Each structure stands twice: as structure tokens, then as C-alpha cells.
Amino acid sequence: MAHNLQDTVALLERTPGALDELLRGLPETWTHHNEGGETFTVVDVVGHLIYADRVDWMPRAHMILEHGENKPFDPFDRRGHVEECRGKSLPRLLDEFRRVRAGCLDDLRALNLQPEQLELRGRHPSLGAVTLSNLLATWAAHDLTHLHQISRIMAHQYRDEVGPFGAFLGVLKCNGHGG
Amino acid sequence: MAHNLQDTVALLERTPGALDELLRGLPETWTHHNEGGETFTVVDVVGHLIYADRVDWMPRAHMILEHGENKPFDPFDRRGHVEECRGKSLPRLLDEFRRVRAGCLDDLRALNLQPEQLELRGRHPSLGAVTLSNLLATWAAHDLTHLHQISRIMAHQYRDEVGPFGAFLGVLKCNGHGG
């Protein structure tokens, strides 16, 4: 059964503002360090959210409406944020996320999707059949998985600073689960 | 060695605004459901953050400055938010968090703590000796562990809605790690 699209939109429209309030002007201690190796910084995550809005969610929604299961989605480039971020400050990326997200939501609202359309299916290149409802619900859950990641990346920077209190901080025990 | 207190304050002063942007007006689907059993809703988490600001962080900082290791901190009541939340709407709790946090940060700034004071030690009832630096760094990391929890509680509400995409969403694999 299709989910409640209003709940999804309510979250999607709040994420850019929430990240702006959390991150704008924050010292680079929090925003420009990663969790080691090839992991993302907070800046990378914001770039990834912009890139995913540009190439993934609404383009795939249009694919479902136009081609159904006949044509698989283009695969998503998990390093696509690298070009997206190049030469841009975090404040600029936050401005861009707000603008790109607002444009995507205008596009979504203009479709005026009806419940039966949410049941339409598309073809994901590795997951197989997914509904338009699954895709749009995942757009919101994807914001949340990256908010989860941002809080974990930031907490990681204080791993030593918290001393014995680390035993009580669940976020420091999170292994990332791949994102 | 003591950490950079400016970094901690920069985060602490942004959390209430970030939660306000994320949560105010959001449908109850996201904010009034938990992860099952006795787990917290998003509303409970905001109540817990207010309660911890009232009874935990700055009161313990004052304990360290006044009594050092001679007197252990009062134990923290993990159900203290229940009374804190009773009869209050989420918007009211968000207003209250903003006000209580601002008051705590005024109190912290008024102490004008010097690096050598951050090395002072207090006694935690179960963890033993902790420094004032550890305590204040943990205040910031505690905001992050609860932002991590909020994103996980919210994502949990879409566990079924995302369908096959759940395989790609790290936040749905997070087991909470106790908070």
C-alpha cells in the first residue's frame, strides 16, 4: 500500500533548514574531518544530498511515470558529490541544498500524484522492482540516514575529549552500517 | 589535555535551533512514535535534553569547581524527562529547550573558564574521576548521540514504506547501542 506522501514532503522540506541551523558557522573541527580512511566529512554529506536530489530522486520518479518497469534507473554514483563539492564552501553548499531541494519539491507537487500512481513500479538496477511510493519514502529516509551519519561523524571528533563518558554515548558505538 | 571549549559552545548553541527547524510542525507520524517497547519518542528525546540541561551539565560543572573529587555528582535519572514532558506539546518543549539551553550557556560564559580549570576533576557516581573538560565535551557529544537517536527513531517509522531500499539505509541497521 502507498504511504502518506504529505508526511514525506513535510520532512523533505525541513531538512535543508535543519542542516543550515546545525552547520552554518560551525568550526571546522566538526565539519571538515571524517571518520578515517575514505569516509565522508560533513561537507561531503551535504554535497551528496545535493547530488542525490539532482540526479536520483525526482529523475527516477519521472522514469517510473514515463517508462514503468521497461527501463531501469541509471545507477547512482556514490562519489558524485566530489564534483558537486569542488571549490565550494560549506555555506555555499547549504544555500545550494536549500535551492535544489525546493526545486525538487516544486516538481513533485506539480505532478499532483494520486494514490494509484504511487503504486506504479519502476526497475532499480540492483534491487529490481520498486514502487514510486517506495522511492519517495526512501528519499525522506535517506535524509535521515545522512543526519544519522552527520551526528556520528561529528561525535567521532570528540572520541578522546569525552574521556570515561564515552561508555554512555551510543553514537560512539555506531559502526556506520555502510552509511 | 583540555579540549577547545569554543568548539563545544558553538555546537551547544546550535542544537535547539536545528531541532526546531527539523521538528516544529512535523506530522506526529515522525514525532510521536517510538522504536517499540519502552523506547523514546522524538518528544521524549527533546524532554530528556531539557531535563539534562536543567539537572546535569552545568550543575555538575559547578560541583567540580566547588567540591572537586570530594563529593560525587548526583546520579542522573534517565526517566526524568517523563515529568519534564507531562502536558506539554512538542512546540512548547522546543521553546523551552531553546530558553533553558541559552540560560545554561550564559552561566557557562559567566564562569570565564581558563584552560587550567578545565583540568579540574570531579567524581562521577559510576565512572569515577572525570575532568571538567570531559564533562563539557560530553555535553556536546550528548546532543549528537540524541540527534543520532532522533534520526533513527524517525527512520524506523518508514521501515516498511521504503520496501527493498531498506538494504541501502544504514540508519535502519543501527541497533541503538543503548541510546
UniProtKB/TrEMBL annotation, chains A, B:
This is DinB family protein. Residues 12-150 form the DinB-like domain. InterPro entries: DinB-like, DinB/YfiT-like. It comes from the Bacteria. Gene3D superfamilies: dinb family like domain. It holds the Pfam family DinB_2. The lineage of its organism: Bacteria, Pseudomonadati, Acidobacteriota, Terriglobia, Terriglobales.
